Amino acid sequence: xxRLSGCFAGLKERGRTAVIPYVVAGDPETAMTVPLxxxxxxxxxxxxxxxxxxxxxxxxxxxxxxxxxxxxxNGMTLRGVLALVREFRQNNxxxxxxxxxxxxxxxxxxxxAVADACAExxxxxxxxxxxxxxxxxxxxxxxxxxxxxxxxxxxxxxxxARMKTIxxxxxxxxxYVAVKxxxxxxxxxxxxxxxxxxxxxxxxxxxxxxxxxxxxxxxAAGVAAVADGVVVGSALIDAMAQKIKAGxxxxxxxxxxxxxxxNIRSGVDQ
Length: 270
Fold this sequence. Notes:
Shape: globular
Distance between the termini: 29 Å
Helix content: 40-55%
CATH superfamily: Aldolase class I
Structural class: alpha/beta
Number of helices: 12
Number of domains: 1
Strand order of the largest sheet: 1-2-3-4-5-6-7-8
CATH topology: TIM Barrel
Number of strands: 8
Radius of gyration: 17 Å
Oligomer: single chain
């Protein structure tokens, strides 16, 4: 059983919903990424999504786009992200880690090389936002070779036929995009989310994590009532960015993100 599968199975047995923070590696500062990850685990994170900075992150809203820009300015690369993962794994061998990025850096490095490097670093799952399920046969073969899950996104506009194509290729969990548009945009309608999750569960037995639009304890709690996991990204990155903008330290910025995640964990558990 993979770390991801074991994590979701254990949470289900205890009647708990996974809390999954998303951070951009290298934002706001490379040296703070690993301490931030450890502190997020201490605050209640069950899984961590690590964003690989990219110059054209098309699914992201302004907040995460700016996080990517700051990380790129700090010199972060795909190989640099994996180096941070190896550092994190020196003191944490249990928390599942999911690499989230875009096809260009992955295809440039090569699917086999990415799979080997991810396995060596301690990555458990990969989300390649702009790689369609019709084109994943080659990378799926490489990821399966090293027992890494390939995680796909399903949106409110995904038709049933395409949903079937996606779920047949997916492993680990399904990432449901709760709002139309980019990260940080739109109003979260938990009734609509529940309806769509029912459709997805008819096509797949994989756990479903819901992201996009979760900003605080209340929105996380609403989603936790119907999902297996809640993903929060823009709110954490914005909390850090606002502290930096106000002239506070990088530690103050990361502390703000950790405090917000702790609040979200409390909301989910209640």
